[in-house]
């Protein structure tokens, strides 16, 4: 077993675990360009500012709402997306600063 000085950062491991699921990775890719992948005419808030409504993500994914919510919660725990409540709806957007930091950290680690 590796010592603490050479062990991977737990946050990096969490992010990589979140990205290891193809559906979670697809959700993150869609959220990179929300105006391209989701219907803007039905948005109740600015997708660039607050994100995409979970109902729109669920409709595009074609999965149960509970499954999509679980996937987004995993991405949120890993710090890859941020959630914002607008009324009774939760909107998700990418955390670009965290993603850039993760890419840099991965480059340094590997």
Automatic annotation (TrEMBL):
List the Gene3D superfamilies.
Winged helix-like DNA-binding domain superfamily/Winged helix DNA-binding domain
Residue span, HTH arsR-type domain: 4-110
Q: Provide the alphabetized UniProt keywords.
A: DNA-binding, Transcription, Transcription regulation
Q: Name one GO molecular function term.
A: DNA-binding transcription factor activity
Read off the InterPro entries from this record: ArsR-like_HTH, HTH_ArsR_DNA-bd_dom, HTH_MetalResp_TranReg, Tscrpt_reg_IclR_N, WH-like_DNA-bd_sf, WH_DNA-bd_sf
Give the protein's recorded name: Helix-turn-helix domain-containing protein
What species does this protein belong to?
Answer: Streptomyces sp. NBC_00180
């Amino acid at each position: 077993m590796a010592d603490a000085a050479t062990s991977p950062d737990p946050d990096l491991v969490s992010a990589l675990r979140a990205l290891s699921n193809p559906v979670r990775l697809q959700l993150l890719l869609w959220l990179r360009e929300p105006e391209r992948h989701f219907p803007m005419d039905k948005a109740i808030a600015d997708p660039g500012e607050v994100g995409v409504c979970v109902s729109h993500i669920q409709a595009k994914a074609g999965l149960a709402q509970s499954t999509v919510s679980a996937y987004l919660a995993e991405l949120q725990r890993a710090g890859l997306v941020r959630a914002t409540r607008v009324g009774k709806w939760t909107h998700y957007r990418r955390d670009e600063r965290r993603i850039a930091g993760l890419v840099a950290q991965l480059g340094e680690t590997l």
